[in-house]
Design goal:
- The complex is a heterodimer of chains A (about 280) and B (about 450).
- The longest helix of chain A has about 35 residues.
- The radius of gyration of chain A is 24 Å and the shape is flat.
- Chain A is built from 13 helices and no strands.
- Chain A is mainly alpha-helical.
- Chain B has 2 domains: about 200 residues, no CATH class; about 250 residues, Orthogonal Bundle (MetI-like fold), CATH 1.10.3720.10.
- In chain B, helix 6 runs antiparallel to helix 8 and helix 12 crosses helix 17.
- The two termini of chain B are about 20 Å apart.
- The chains are: A mainly alpha (about 280), B mainly alpha (about 450).
- Chains A and B meet through helix 1, helix 3, helix 4, helix 5 and helix 6 of A and helix 6, helix 8, helix 10, helix 11 and helix 12 of B.
């Protein structure tokens, strides 16, 4: 009996060791990014793991930089993401609810078209979006918001999956009592779908902070770095500074860390909602 | 299926009957939408239909016709030229017509035309319903009832209205536009005025000057997609089982550690990873200090060994992808039926056997649709390649692509890089679509077979 316990403990110890080893392996590059943001370095490269000298200058530098208006980037991104969150969540939830709970003639064709459209690589549409926005003089933050909201209608799959798990009997009972479909949607559907609304909103909120491609194509046209969003601003900053003998590279890292922390926290929160959603669905079989 | 269909009443009147027996307003409705509704006091419907038709006609006459007309040759002047203007007696420079804009507005016009056709059909249907209601002496919905139905029986129309406009403007229009671009000669040599050239651009990619790049890149894309999907899935499941195994405490904490890596914005984590793996980067420094290597390894630089770079890309992708698979398979593992596993344990199966014959197949079964999605996602995995290697190492045999470039990053290079082969990039987009669609179709049929079996 004792040997069994010993074996158990050995196995547990081994598993803990493995887990700790993996966790360290996974975090080594992340910790390095944070360390590098504090390193005093003006070579344009960070070539050591542990900085030779620590400094806060990078953080001060990024906030006071003339060439890279970091505060403007944050303000722009915040504006874009707040407006886009409200509109995109509304659009996504409307589409998901309609496709999940309402039955109408064009429902099947719509689902099929959405499936087909989703298989085209997103980049294909980029040149076209550029010209569309250009011909309407919308190569600015407003155009960027429109692109995000316009794409939200096809991102309904997860929310639809959630609505599918709510029993239809609830709706039917309400209809029996004389509720219109709108009342069912407003007073029953929406309150019950709070987790998925939070999830959808968080997804929409995070998108502008991490998207450097669309924002780059749309915003680079103006050439005014004060109109950039954070992701494109930082990406652009790196491209003009990597390898160059400047202090900007470490400032870039500092900027990345400032943005990455809140986004990472939001993302971890969002994932909890996502996993809970999946589990809730699985429970009901 | 059948139950739903029976709800749609079969038309109790043909359009021919409406035309023959309806009064003048019905006959006129075939030309001027909404007149019949207006006559029978369905103001909202009638005004909407009539107003839309008038607006459409005004647009069509004043700009639609010319826009559609120009679509046939994408502008007559293809390149800048100087012509003698006899009326003024001077030479004038004629700038080429901007085919990009002509094509864009042409596609828009086609979409408007199709939308109008749909509205016309909706009008006919509405007129027919009205006719039947009047003929059979049924209740004709009042204006108020019509509007109210938008919140009840026709709620779907209300809720879908704005999203559909967004989808048409920002997804369907660009996609159609790019598809049509694949049939032109829009490239660096014809940057402003281009024309229709049929399947020539397809020929260039499949057999012409780009074929020598296309097929190797396609091969690597498939290898990459298989390797990336398989490694992240397999090790993700293992990691999930390790965290979920008996005796491990603070499971949420461990999961969070791994999710952090995935949660950091990719343009931060991957760009910095590229720096981390650089020839002069910290990883090479560390390895040299520990005397594991004598000279720095060129993981992903411009002159790296292609094989090393490709393996590096797959490994770095595991760093980001395993946490995702771990999260998804955690949810599945928590819901796995335990009785089979316990029965196997009773019969003396060890942990490895249980995993190989019970747990893993079950997870694979539940996750197969998600796996196919991941596979297609990996075919289109722009970020990892673009941010990490930028397509490097260079390959002189390729046209505008490097050894680690996928079809999507190559597509991007063809547009925004030096080569400027816009039509070829559109062709690539279509080919990627065909690739994704094929795999989805196979997967769909297989999962259906599973369900029946």
């Amino acid at each position: 009996m004792k040997s069994y316990h010993a074996q158990r403990r050995l196995s547990l110890g081994f598993r803990y060791l493995l887990l700790i080893f993996l966790a360290v392996l996974w975090l080594v590059p992340i910790v390095w990014i944070v360390l590098a943001s504090f390193s005093a370095n003006d070579t344009g490269f960070v070539s050591t793991y542990w900085p030779k000298e620590f400094t806060l200058q990078n953080y001060i530098g990024i906030f006071t930089s003339e060439q890279f208006p970091f505060v403007y980037w944050i303000r722009n991104t915040l504006m874009v993401s707040i407006i886009s969150t409200i509109l995109s969540t509304f659009v996504t939830i409307c589409v998901a609810y309609t496709l999940s709970r309402l039955r109408f003639r064009l429902r099947k064709p719509f689902l099929q078209i959405a499936l087909v459209l989703g298989m085209f690589p997103g980049f294909m549409a980029m040149i076209a979006l550029y010209y569309i926005l250009k011909s309407f003089n919308m190569l600015n933050l407003g155009g960027l918001i429109l692109v995000y909201v316009g794409g939200a209608g096809l991102g309904f799959y997860i929310a639809k999956g959630f609505f599918d798990t709510i029993p239809v009997a609830i709706d039917e009972a309400a209809v029996m009592d004389g509720a219109t479909k709108w009342q069912v949607f407003w007073h029953i559907g929406l309150p019950m779908s709070r987790p998925i609304i939070v999830y959808t909103a968080l997804t929409a909120f995070i998108a502008p902070w991490i998207d450097f491609i669309f924002s780059g194509i749309i915003l680079s046209a103006s050439g005014d770095s004060k109109t950039y969003t954070i992701a494109y601003g930082l990406y652009n900053m790196l491209h003009s500074t990597r390898g160059a003998s400047t202090t900007y590279f470490t400032q870039f890292i500092a900027g990345c860390v400032i943005i990455a922390i809140p986004i990472t926290v939001l993302f971890v929160i969002m994932q909890k909602f996502y996993v809970n959603g999946i589990t809730a669905g699985a429970d009901k079989g | 299926m059948f139950k739903r269909k029976s709800k749609h009443q079969p038309p109790t009147a043909t359009y021919r009957e409406v035309w023959a027996n309806g009064d003048a307003s019905f006959k006129l409705s075939f030309f001027f939408m909404g007149l019949a509704q207006l006559k029978h006091k369905q103001w909202a419907k009638g005004i909407a239909f009539l107003g839309l038709e008038l607006a459409f006609l005004a647009w069509f006459i004043f700009s639609g016709i010319s826009l559609l007309g120009m679509l046939s040759d994408l502008g007559t002047i293809k390149s800048k030229k100087v012509v003698f203007d006899a009326s003024q007696g001077v030479y004038v420079t004629k700038l080429p017509d901007n085919s990009v804009v002509i094509l864009l507005f042409g596609v828009m016009s086609v979409i408007l035309l199709v939308t109008m056709l749909g509205l016309y059909l909706a009008n006919l249907r509405s007129v027919r319903t009205l006719y039947v209601q009047l003929r059979d002496g049924e209740h004709v919905p009042t204006n108020r009832e019509d509007l109210h139905s938008l919140l009840d029986s026709r709620l779907h129309a209300t809720l879908m209205m704005i999203p559909i406009i967004g989808i048409v403007a920002f997804t369907i229009l660009p996609t159609l536009y790019m598809i049509s671009m694949a049939f032109t000669n829009y490239d660096g040599k014809h940057p402003i005025g281009f024309s229709w050239t049929g399947f020539k651009a397809f020929g260039n990619v499949l057999t012409g000057d780009l074929a020598g790049t296309f097929f190797p890149v396609l091969g690597w894309t498939l290898v990459w997609a298989v390797a990336a999907t398989a490694t992240t899935f397999f090790f993700g499941v293992l990691l999930a089982m390790l965290i979920e195994s008996k005796g491990i405490k603070h499971k949420g904490f461990w999961r969070t550690i791994f999710v952090i890596v995935y949660a950091v914005p990719q343009f931060v984590s991957l760009l910095m990873m590229a720096q981390f793996l650089d020839l002069q980067g910290p990883l090479n420094n560390l390895l040299m200090n520990w005397h594991l290597i004598s000279s720095p390894i060129n993981f992903i630089g411009a002159s790296a060994n292609p094989m090393v770079a490709r393996i590096t890309v797959i490994v770095v992708n595991m760093w980001i992808g395993i946490p995702v698979s771990m999260l998804v398979s955690t949810a599945i593992i928590q819901n796995l039926p335990q009785d089979q596993i316990e029965a196997a344990r009773m019969d003396g199966a060890n942990a490895l056997q249980v995993f190989r014959t019970i747990t893993f197949p079950q997870i694979l079964f539940v996750m197969s649709p998600a796996l196919i999605q991941q596979f297609i996602g990996n075919i289109n995995n722009f970020n990892v390649i673009y941010l990490l290697t930028g397509g490097y190492p260079m390959n002189n045999n390729y046209n505008g692509a490097g050894d680690t470039d996928l079809l999507v990053t190559w597509l991007y290079n063809l547009v925004f890089g030096q080569t400027q082969r816009y039509n070829a990039s559109a062709v690539l987009g279509i080919l990627i679509f065909i690739l994704s669609a094929t795999f989805s179709l196979i997967a769909y049929r297989r999962t259906n077979a599973f369900k029946e079996g």
